[in-house]
Amino acid sequence: MGHRLIKVYTRTGDDGSRVPKDHPRIEVLGCLDELNSIIGLILVQAEPDPPPQLAHVQNRLFSHGCRGRSAPARRARPGRG
């Protein structure tokens, strides 16, 4: 497919923060990972001529997931959930 992915290292994040396992961000990241995996399976099954749009979407999802993993944890404001 010709896309080179960056290496991702996970420990305590860029700012050293941690979030609890039930944090909404963790749920979103898990959903992004699952969707990315499903798209990967579709791309493999569609060989030798996979839709180029799916590879683009998969790359974007991966980028969003990386940003979400390195974003600082924010506390929810009262009344905003």
Write the SSE topology.
Layout: H1 24-45, H2 52-70
Walk me through this protein's architecture:
The structure is a single chain. This protein has 81 residues and is mainly α. It has one domain. Helix 1 packs antiparallel against helix 2. The longest helix has 22 residues. The model has no long low-confidence stretch (mean pLDDT 75).
Shape: elongated
User: What is the count of structural domains?
Assistant: 1
What fraction strand? under 5%
Question: Percent of residues in helical segments?
Answer: 40-55%
> Pairing-aware structural class of the strands and helices?
mainly alpha
Summary of the model, kept short:
This protein is mainly α and 81 residues long.
Distinctive features:
mainly alpha, about 80 residues, 2 helices
